[in-house]
Structure formats: structure tokens, C-alpha cells
């Protein structure tokens, strides 16, 4: 088979906001306790955080981390996580015991260690305006007030200067502590936003969209919430998880088309409210939960409640999962004009690309690699691709292109980086990339993730699923031709002359 992508240096989608390579750390399972934080581990630093985990998070290139939830935040009292007296609490969202050993100070320290910005969520389930304004004052005010002075007393003389804040989490969900109607949440989110921006007008705020696309209130929820909050918030959230429960790989690898449809639907709702309000403001999107999540469902049903850091949501990912994650990353880049924030949920142990053993090793899952390559190399301006590819149909989607691809121009390094997935189960694709307006000097690197059984996984002792170098390409001025192996994730880095 043959396919072609044409891009032009002058026709762009958007500059990449590096927050699109974000992740998520929640007080859930072994994400924090036994994940990033394990004081008894041989590599633990003076504050109890694992140095080996820090190193691999930095390798992954995670730029931005949402914290502390998730469902957890809707029952969380942030004051339990500061100072010397840290009470143990029943954590109702995940039916666990929360020790509060890690709180705001500890997490901000860790995020600085891994070179990531913090995206803080406030509790709009059991708490509200007053708790949110106090937390913001505690984190961001320089000093001279009760809450900022308390932060200094607790060891942080300088403010944390957290700039992005989520107004609650999945507030439409019946599983959520403090679930609200769209009217209830919209009013509360608007009043909270107004007060928070009085405390610090430099912050950006994320309002909750629907918890997922199939919610019966989808679209009407977004419209009602934005009727109340449009003037006060900067982003609307999207959440979406995917699985291959039917063991139908053709449909599974096409699920990035569902993500694209979801994004464009939410954009339409935002722009409807913009038009209705006669506003000059454009609202952007925060896709602050996305991933593959289905492997661990049966295992989680067997967990006893009220454990401390139980092994919850510990999906072990396989090769086909890495290909879908690659397709989803390409989709986010193609929508980078409106999606400015995205968080792979989550970072360590909990539906995560990084796994740890208690007292032992840290290792990379199959899904680590597409994210790592995009986060480290997908910087610059996304070029608007025109792709001519053969297509297939499957149970869930019609007209699925075999090739999913995008190109990013890194102007600072004068490189063009191409990410591509071949969805074909058994055929190579001769892929031609015409880069108009460029004069290519060389291919810096061509790596491919390919050649594995679709159910192949990595383990703590063996990681067969990882990128390898390929030489199956040719280059001629502004054109590259490459062979994309069947079922493959590919990254091609080109130097412009």
C-alpha cells in the first residue's frame, strides 16, 4: 500500500502549548504512596521521594501535572496535608485510608524536582468558595496575611505561584462526592472563579465539562455551565478513556477518531456560547484525563476496602495499547489550536506508563514510548496535514485511514518531526511525506515501534516493546519516503537545510 502526507511551512494549525504533554497524580492506589513517594526505598531523597522515579519522569518529558484529583479531590480537605499534624482519614472516593503524608508542600517540591508545572484542583464537592480562596491565598500570596504567613511558617517562604487551577472534578457524575446539577455547579464554579481571580488575577481556570461523551447530559451540561462561567474561566475540561473489551483491534486503533469527534463537538458548544454572549473571548480546552483503561477492572473488584495505598487501577499495557496512545497523541496535536492542556491519566502505577515495585525497580510500560517521544520532540508549530491514505471499515467506524500522521516544525532547532501510525495488521505502507517550503538536509533519526504480538507487554525484568532504529527511508530535497511496518508507531526527525 501507498500513502502520502503533504504539509506546507505556511499552513499551520497552532504552536504547541507544552502543557499538552501533561500527566496526572492523584491520591489513588499506589500512584503517590509506593509510587513517587517511598521513604524506605534505597533511592529515596531526604523528603522520601524516589530518585529513580524522578529520573524516569524527567526522561518521559512530562511538563505539567494535575493534582490531587480526580475523584479524590471532591472529598479532600487540603488543610489535612499541611503542618506537622497530619490526620489519617477515610478516603471515600476510592475507599482507602489516606495518611496525608504527602500534601501541597511535598507535591510542589516533587513537581519542581521533575521540572513540571502544577495544575491544582480545588474541592467543589464537599467544599466551596471559601476553601478554594484560602487554598489559593496559601499557595500564591507573597505574605502578610493569615494563609500566606501559615505557608511560610510551614517552611515555604516564597509563594508556589501555581497558575492553572481546576474548579472541581467530574461534578456531573453520580459517583462523585457532592455531585451537582449543571445549574448548581455552574453557579458555584462561577462564584468560585470570581473570588479566586480577586485573590490572584494571573491564574487560569478550568471548568468541568461532562465526565464522558455518553453522559445523558452531554452538551446540555457544557452549555449550561458555560452560560454561568464563560466570562470567568479559560478552559473547559474533557475526559475520555478507551479499551479493547471486544478484542477488535481494527476498531480499537480507530478510537482516535472518537477523540477527534469529541473534541470538535465540545469546541462547537464553546463557540455557540461565545456567539450567544456576543463575546470576543475564545475558550480553550483542557483534555485533563485521557488514556487506555480497561485491563484492571476485574482485579479491582477483588480489592478489600480501607487499605492504605492498595493496588488499584494497575493496568498492564500491551503493544496494541501503545499504538492507540500514539494515535491519540497525534489527534491532540492536530487539535492544538484549541486543546492547550492534556493530561495522560495517570503517571505512576495507576493506569500509568511508569510502574514501580515496592523497595525495588521502576520500569517503563509499552505506552511510555510514544508519549516520551512526543513530549521530548514534538515542540514547535503543528503543520496542517493533508493525508491521502487507503482506508478500511470496521464495526465501530467507517472510512478509517490506515495511516494516522502529523508533522511539527521546531523552528528553534530547524527540525521537522513526523509522527505516524500504520494501522494495517499485515501490510507495509510506502509513506511519502512532501514538506513544501522546506529544503531537507538529512534525517536525524527514524525510530519505529513494531514487530510485536499485539498482546505483548513489558515487565520489570524484560522490556521487548521499545523503539528501534530504522534505515527504511530515502530523502530528496523536500520529500521523504519511508516504509511503515505493519502495526507500527514511527517518529522521523528531519533537519532543514
Task: Supply the key terms.
about 500 residues, alpha/beta, 8-stranded parallel beta barrel, 27 strands, about 25% helix, globular
Question: How would you describe this structure to a colleague?
Answer:
The protein is α/β, with parallel strands linked by helices and 497 residues long. It has two domains: 3-8 and 383-496, Immunoglobulin-like (Sandwich); 17-377, TIM Barrel (Alpha-Beta Barrel), CATH 3.20.20.80. It contains eleven helices and 27 strands. Strands 3-4-7-8-9-10-11-13 form an eight-stranded parallel barrel, surrounded by six helices. A seven-stranded antiparallel beta sheet has the order 2-16-20-21-27-23-24, covered by helices on one side. A hairpin with a 4-residue loop joins β5 and β6. α5 runs parallel beside α6 (220-229), α6 (220-229) packs across α8 (256-276) and α8 runs parallel beside α10 (319-334). The longest helix is centred in the middle third of the chain and has 21 residues, at 256-276. The two termini are 30 Å apart. The model has no long low-confidence stretch (mean pLDDT 97).
Please give the structural blueprint.
Layout: E1 2-8, E2 12-15, E3 22-24, H1 51-60, E4 64-67, E5 89-91, E6 96-98, H2 104-113, E7 117-122, H3 129-140, H4 146-153, E8 164-167, H5 182-199, E9 204-207, H6 220-229, E10 235-242, H7 249-252, H8 256-276, E11 284-292, H9 297-301, E12 307-308, H10 319-334, E13 339-345, E14 354-356, E15 362-364, H11 368-377, E16 381-383, E17 386-388, E18 391-392, E19 400-401, E20 403-410, E21 415-422, E22 429-436, E23 440-449, E24 468-469, E25 473-476, E26 479-484, E27 488-496
Parallel strand pairs: 1-22, 3-4, 3-13, 4-7, 6-12, 7-8, 8-9, 9-10, 10-11, 11-13
Antiparallel strand pairs: 1-17, 2-16, 5-6, 14-15, 16-20, 18-19, 20-21, 21-27, 22-26, 23-24, 23-27, 25-26
Helix pairs in contact: 3-4, 3-5, 5-6, 6-8, 8-10, 10-11
Amino acid at each position: 500500500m501507498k500513502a502520502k502526507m503533504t504539509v506546507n511551512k505556511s499552513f499551520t494549525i497552532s504552536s504547541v502549548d507544552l502543557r499538552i504533554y501533561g500527566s496526572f497524580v492523584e491520591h489513588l492506589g499506589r500512584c503517590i504512596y509506593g509510587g513517587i513517594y517511598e521513604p524506605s526505598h534505597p533511592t529515596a531523597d531526604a523528603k522520601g521521594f524516589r530518585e529513580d522515579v524522578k529520573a524516569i519522569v524527567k526522561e518521559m518529558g512530562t511538563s505539567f501535572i494535575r493534582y490531587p484529583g480526580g475523584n479524590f479531590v471532591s472529598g479532600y480537605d487540603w488543610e489535612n496535608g499541611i503542618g506537622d499534624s497530619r490526620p489519617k482519614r477515610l478516603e471515600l472516593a476510592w475507599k482507602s485510608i489516606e495518611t496525608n503524608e504527602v500534601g501541597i508542600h511535598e507535591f510542589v517540591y516533587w513537581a519542581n524536582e521533575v521540572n513540571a508545572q502544577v495544575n491544582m484542583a480545588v474541592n467543589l464537592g464537599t467544599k466551596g468558595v471559601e476553601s478554594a480562596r484560602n487554598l489559593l491565598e496559601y499557595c500564591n500570596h507573597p505574605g502578610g496575611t493569615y494563609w500566606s504567613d501559615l505557608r511560610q511558617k510551614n517552611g515555604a517562604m516564597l509563594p508556589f505561584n501555581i497558575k492553572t487551577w481546576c474548579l472541581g472534578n467530574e461534578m456531573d457524575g453520580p459517583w462523585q462526592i457532592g455531585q451537582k446539577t449543571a445549574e448548581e455547579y455552574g453557579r458555584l464554579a462561577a462564584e468560585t472563579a470570581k473570588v479566586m481571580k480577586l485573590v490572584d488575577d494571573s491564574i487560569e481556570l478550568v471548568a468541568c465539562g461532562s465526565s464522558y461523551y455518553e453522559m445523558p447530559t452531554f452538551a446540555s451540561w457544557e452549555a449550561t455551565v458555560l452560560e454561568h462561567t464563560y466570562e470567568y474561566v479559560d478552559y473547559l475540561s474533557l475526559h475520555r478513556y478507551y479499551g479493547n473489551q471486544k478484542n477488535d483491534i481494527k476498531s480499537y486503533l480507530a478510537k482516535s477518531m472518537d477523540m477527534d469527534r469529541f473534541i470538535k463537538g465540545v469546541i462547537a458548544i464553546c463557540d455557540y456560547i461565545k456567539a450567544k454572549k456576543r463575546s470576543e473571548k475564545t475558550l480553550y480546552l483542557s483534555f485533563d484525563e485521557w488514556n487506555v483503561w480497561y485491563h484492571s477492572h476485574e482485579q479491582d473488584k477483588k480489592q478489600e476496602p480501607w487499605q492504605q495505598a492498595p493496588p488499584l487501577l494497575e493496568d498492564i499495557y500491551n503493544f496494541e495499547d501503545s499504538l492507540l496512545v500514539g494515535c491519540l497523541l497525534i489527534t491532540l496535536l492536530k487539535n492544538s489550536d484549541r486543546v492547550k492542556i492534556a493530561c495522560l491519566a495517570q503517571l505512576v502505577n495507576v493506569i500509568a506508563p511508569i510502574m514501580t515495585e515496592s523497595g525495588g525497580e521502576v520500569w517503563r510500560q509499552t505506552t511510555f514510548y510514544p508519549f516520551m517521544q512526543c513530549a521530548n520532540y514534538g515542540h514547535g508549530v503543528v503543520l496542517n496535514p493533508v493525508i491521502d491514505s487507503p482506508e478500511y471499515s470496521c464495526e465501530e467506524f467507517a472510512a478509517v485511514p490506515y495511516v494516522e500522521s502529523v508533522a511539527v516544525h521546531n523552528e528553534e532547532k530547524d527540525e521537522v518531526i513526523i509522527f505516524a501510525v500504520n494501522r494495517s495488521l499485515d501490510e507495509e505502507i510506502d509513506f511519502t511525506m512532501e514538506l513544501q517550503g522546506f529544503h531537507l538536509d538529512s534525517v536525524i533519526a527514524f525510530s519505529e515501534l513494531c514487530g510485536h504480538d499485539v498482546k505483548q507487554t513489558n515487565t520489570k525484568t524484560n522490556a521487548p516493546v521499545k523503539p528501534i532504529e530504522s534505515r527504511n527511508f530515502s530523502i530528496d530535497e523536500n520529500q521523504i519516503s519511508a516504509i511503515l511496518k505493519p502495526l507500527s508507531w514511527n517518529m522521523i526527525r528531519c533537519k532543514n537545510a
